[in-house]
Amino acid sequence: MSAAATSPKSPRQLYQIAKRHGMWDPEQIPIAEDRPHWERLTPGQKEQLLKVCALFYEGEVSVSDTLAWFIAGMQDADRRVFLTTQMFEEVKHAEFFHLYFRDVFGEVNTAAYLVPEYRGVLLDELKARGEAIGRALLSGSEEELDKAMVIGFTHYMGIVEGGLAVTGYQYFEEMLGSRGIFPRLLQGIQLIRADEGRHLAHGMDYLRQKIARKPDLAALVRHLFWSETLKIPARTEVVFRPNDFGLSRIKMMTLAYSHIKQRQHECGVA
Ligand SMILES: [Fe+2]
Ligand SMILES: [Fe+2]
User: Fold this and answer.
1) How far is the CA of 87 from the centre of ligand 2 (A)?
2) Complete domains list, the chain, with CATH
3) Residues 203, 158 contacting (CB under 8 angstroms)
4) How many whole angstroms from 82 Cα to the centroid of ligand 2?
């Protein structure tokens, strides 16, 4: 068991860390330096890299737009404080990718990459989770709010951040890091990844506490993890059409499964 799992940082501690380390500025990264690397890629490699970046960009915009519901529904004051840093960071992540498209890839219709395998989980269903939190909050029912928050956290922090994004970072590592190319993109990813580590730690800690207090909620969480796990093969396939970087499907799918399993352990449902 990792140290993080045995002694999770409190929301206040995560907030303090965010203040000290989450203040990087996407505009300070000389992104345009990556352009010669982009020009040297084959058309198939360009398409594969664009796909991963477009999905990240769309995902970051979507989580930025949805997080306000989670802050509104959060009953714990310290957690609300932490979530304000998360909101700021998600906006910056979207900004990093926006600048990257502007300075390196050029004009790209990123929404065109939102195929059904990703559109639901990143946009439509996430939005619905947020709206469900809003409705539960207005209903005044503590039970409904707990349910909507736990499902929302499982979707946002468990699946989107804790399954898709953490697997996505490895795509950058396999495509670019292993070849020593695109240093500025990798620099941004490394900074985003550090921020996301806090979002994930907080999210799993929240779920673990909630489920420990109300074990009835575990079944809902387990079901959502299970239904999203079934979608891993189809989601992986999207990123392998084309596969001009020559990535290993088995390796990437195994990684995706292991992340979801790890999240279930962290929130106490496996
Ligand atoms: Fe993010
Ligand atoms: Fe995040």
Assistant:
1) 8
2) 9-22+30-266 (1.10.620.20)
3) yes
4) 12
